[in-house]
Design a protein that fits this description.
The complex is a heterodimer of chains A (339) and B (507). Chain A has 339 residues and is of the alpha/beta class. In chain A, 41% of the residues lie in helices and 17% in strands. The N and C termini of chain A lie far apart (44 Å). Chain B contains 23 helices and 2 strands. In chain B, helix 4 packs antiparallel against helix 15. Chain B is globular. The N and C termini of chain B lie far apart (70 Å). The chains are: A alpha/beta (339), B mainly alpha (507).
């Protein structure tokens, strides 16, 4: 009912907008939404993608960046396949966009659900989410090397790695780590969400996690978790103290610790198939405006995001590279769905 | 005592005119959201979240948490009047609430439901006020094995409550488990039983199934039985509230037990829905009038409502102290905290005292305001049953369809709801109980993943369920519940045996 109320209001303001448009002819190419924009989240409520989408929605409303409202809708079914298929099926609908996470690549590869990012219209990359290797602060491991050495020295599958979902980013990183501890493996335990994983680690039900910064930062600040290394080529650029004596930039990269594993997760935006250039340009511009706000900068820092923004050809070639990386990693781990 | 001072400070924050105004708005919106099936608390809060970004964080969370309280209250209304649970946690309320309405005692059922909700919430808020840091640590002891033990206990305490034959109960439960398994298997990442239908990727939504099984099923039954509401002729008496209150103290022990179950399930994020089922099951098991359950006894309304509210309220505690949401609505609120620039987690109580205590104070005030609002409306709600069936039935059908659509914005779900309606009707006709199926549908998925996570951790050894005092005692309690009927009759046999011998000797 509430949704109808807002959309009623929206169509009223759209009608008003139309009147203005008739009176004052706008520049020919500019396109603007004429009804509320659905922002689809192919993941559940409360996760990183959901938080970001709702944050964008809030920023758009607060700074009046769009005449039409933005409505966030969660479509988490089938590891996000539900959301992607909805976008794929909404041919040329300019009022539907989706935020993506790594399941853009992993879900079709792992489950065989028929879609590919090439079916959608790439709009842009908002940021890259980092991954950090965490252990409980009471654990004896002071560095990533200590931990990996312990895995090598211990019984096979003795150490338990918790992560979000199965055959998705967290397990892909786990498999990449296991290449360095052969023949010893870890036991990967899948949970529903990143927050759960962090709490299971605090409760010592698992030995380590590869949580995103924003999922574990609260427990880190409270002194319950210890970051061992960051899965990126370079250290974080945030120098502000997060805990009493450490900032994000104080966390060493895994490479520094002799662990050659890098992984980042796309936080990108995609449109429906066949979206026109003008429509894509509108959204690219919208997200630039969002990124220019102070709110966004604070949010990026809080979650230690890698602030890389891309659109157009640059983004497409990044996507091609990322797809290949995922296919290789998943093939190696034996995660590809049987056709 | 420092806490009392902080709480008083919190009341000062929450009692500003602006915040009280937001509180009332929140409660009213919440009741509406709770009444409309499908548009659950989580959806309602999510839709309204962006509106609050320009408010101060404390006012924003006061309004949003009041929507949550309102939705908790509102869920009971349609359950009792039309057998349509507005929220998953009010399913157990239909078991006795609706039969009461059919007997013309809708006003009593509503009053009992609202009052017990209030009692449950109040108990949980008091727990939060005084035990927050202590209780938060307890939640950390719950790993996969402990979660499975809790879910096992829920099933065990609920088994045997079906009045039908045991094979029918088991068949119904197995069908529920099968339906719960549809969709993505979270442990292997494979799709199960979707048969290539992309609509089935997300599995069967609990709310959609319940709207169909209970709401549509009930409508079909009523149509067959003569196009009118049973109980519509019940006299509308304005003293319903006082009359019901006079009866409630008798059930103080059920209330207390339900409060404890609710708090426990809310804190160890088990959730309000399992809490309500477990509480109902236990109340039936231990009540002196256990046979009256399911036919319309007040105790059967008190137990699930108290537990659901205690759980719903205490679910906010792990969110604030640990940053883990105890319910879907809490998950959305958690996102809100981040956007307002607050970091939920262990340090929130230290760094944002005003916010935390303002929120806790608003829990007291919001629930009192909520109780007053809904109790004054009891005669109004009960009067709905006097509207002719031919007018209200189509309206209910439409509300059901809209509700099923709203859950995922998918037309497919409306058809699923209709199919579940036919299943519900058929089950009724054939004497299969619906409750075990619903329970399996809501908990099957969670129980399965907890069990398999525990098996991964222990590398396949079942001893993990007895590996520490906590999990072993929950598990033993569950086994005791499961075999209680057997144990009970054995004990009975032993007790009566000497008497028989004595009797034989006299003859």
């Amino acid at each position: 009912m509430l949704r109808y109320a807002t959309s009623g209001l929206a169509s009223a303001s759209a009608a008003l907008g139309l009147l203005v448009a008739v009176a004052l002819p706008a520049p020919a190419q500019a396109w603007e939404p004429t009804k509320p924009v659905e922002f689809i989240v192919p993941a559940g409520t409360g996760g990183g993608a959901d938080q970001m989408a709702r944050f964008v929605q809030g920023v758009v409303a607060k700074h009046n960046l769009m005449k039409q409202p933005m409505v966030v809708i969660n479509k988490p079914g089938g590891a996000g396949a539900e959301g992607f298929l909805e976008i794929k099926g909404a041919n040329k609908d300019p009022h539907k966009i989706a935020i993506t996470l790594s399941n853009l690549f992993t879900t079709p590869l792992g489950t065989g659900v028929p879609f590919n990012w090439k079916d959608l219209t790439p709009i842009g990359m908002l940021a890259l989410d980092q991954f950090i290797l965490w252990v409980n602060s009471e654990a004896e491991f002071k560095s990533a090397k200590d931990y990996l050495d312990a895995i090598k020295a211990g019984d096979d599958r003795k150490f338990k790695m918790g992560g979000t979902g199965s055959k998705q980013e967290d397990q892909i990183i786990t498999v990449a780590l296991e290449r360095l501890t052969t023949p010893k493996k870890m036991t990967y335990v899948p949970f529903k969400g990143g927050g759960d994983v962090a709490v299971q680690l605090v409760g010592k039900h698992i030995d380590s996690s590869v949580n995103n910064p924003i999922e574990a930062v609260a427990q880190w600040r409270a002194g319950s978790l210890r970051p061992l290394c960051l899965f990126d080529a370079k250290r974080s650029t945030y120098h502000e103290k997060v805990t009493k004596n450490m900032s994000w930039s104080d966390i060493p990269t895994c490479k520094e610790a002799g662990i050659n594993v890098e992984y980042q997760m796309l936080r990108g935006v995609f449109g429906t198939p066949g979206m026109s250039k003008e429509q894509v340009a509108f959204y690219v511009d919208l997200f630039r405006k969002v990124a220019a706000t102070e709110d966004w900068k604070d949010y990026m820092e809080k979650g230690a995001y890698n602030q890389t923004m891309m659109s157009g050809d640059e983004f497409v070639s990044w996507l091609e590279g990322a797809e290949k990386t995922h296919r290789d990693l998943m093939a190696e781990a034996g995660f590809l769905a049987k056709r | 005592m420092e806490d009392i001072g902080s709480l008083m400070g919190g009341f000062a924050v929450a009692l500003s005119w602006y915040n009280v105004f937001l509180m009332m708005i929140g409660i009213l919106l919440g009741v509406i959201i709770g009444v409309l099936p499908g548009l659950g608390g989580a959806n309602g809060v999510a839709i309204l979240l962006p509106l609050t970004f320009s408010m101060p964080p404390t006012s924003a969370i006061i309004m949003l948490s009041c929507i949550y309280w309102g939705a908790l209250f509102g869920g009971a209304i349609t359950s009792i009047l039309f057998n349509i649970p507005g929220e998953p946690w009010s399913v157990a309320t239909t078991f006795d609430g609706h039969p009461m309405a059919q007997k013309g005692r809708a006003d009593e059922a509503l009053t009992a439901a609202f009052t017990s909700s209030f009692v449950g919430a109040l108990f949980a808020v008091i727990v939060i006020t005084f035990l927050a840091p202590l209780v938060a640590k307890f939640a950390l002891r719950f790993g996969p094995a402990e979660f499975f033990a809790v879910q096992f206990l829920t099933f065990a305490s609920f088994i045997g409550m079906g009045r039908g034959s045991a094979p029918k109960t088991i068949a119904s439960m197995c069908l529920g488990f099968a339906l719960a398994a549809v969709g993505l298997d979270s442990v292997t990442g494979q799709l199960r039983m979707t048969f290539g239908f992309t609509e089935l990727l997300k599995g069967f939504g609990f709310l959609i199934a319940v709207i169909g099984l209970f709401g549509i099923g009930e409508m079909l039954n009523s149509m067959e039985e003569g196009l009118e509401f049973k109980g519509a002729d019940g006299k509308l008496r304005l003293n319903a509230v006082l009359r019901t209150w006079a009866q409630l103290p008798r059930y103080w022990f059920t209330s207390l037990r339900s409060c404890l179950i609710g708090c426990w399930m809310g804190i160890t994020p088990g959730g309000a829905t399992p809490a309500s089922f477990m509480s109902y099951g236990l109340a039936k098991r231990f009540s002196k009038q256990g046979d009256a359950f399911g036919k319309g006894t007040i105790e059967g309304v008190v137990a699930p409502e108290t537990a659901a509210h205690a759980a719903g309220t205490s679910a906010l505690l792990p969110m604030l102290t640990l940053g883990i949401p105890g319910s879907p609505t809490a998950a959305v609120l958690l996102g809100g905290l981040l956007i307002w620039g607050l970091q939920p987690g262990p340090l929130l109580f230290v760094e944002q005292k005003d916010f935390v205590w303002g929120l806790i104070a608003s829990m007291y005030l919001g629930n009192i305001a909520g109780l007053i609002v809904v109790l004054t409306c009891v005669p109004l709600f009960a009067a709905i049953l006097r509207v002719p069936f031919s007018i209200i039935a189509p309206a209910i059908m439409v509300i059901c369809a809209v509700g099923a659509y709203t859950v995922n914005n998918a037309m497919f779900d409306v058809w699923v709801m209709v199919v579940f309606g036919v299943i519900g009707y058929t089950f009724n006709k054939l004497g299969y109980p619906l409750a075990p199926m619903v329970l399996a549908l809501v908990l099957g998925d969670q129980a399965e993943s907890s069990f398999r996570q525990a098996m991964l951790i222990s590398q396949g050894s079942l001893t993990i369920f007895f590996s520490n005092v906590l999990v072993a005692s929950i598990m033993s309690l569950g086994l005791l519940m499961l075999f209680w009927p057997l144990i009970g009759s054995l004990l009975g046999a032993i007790r009566s045996a000497p008497r028989n011998v004595a009797g034989a000797a006299e003859q």
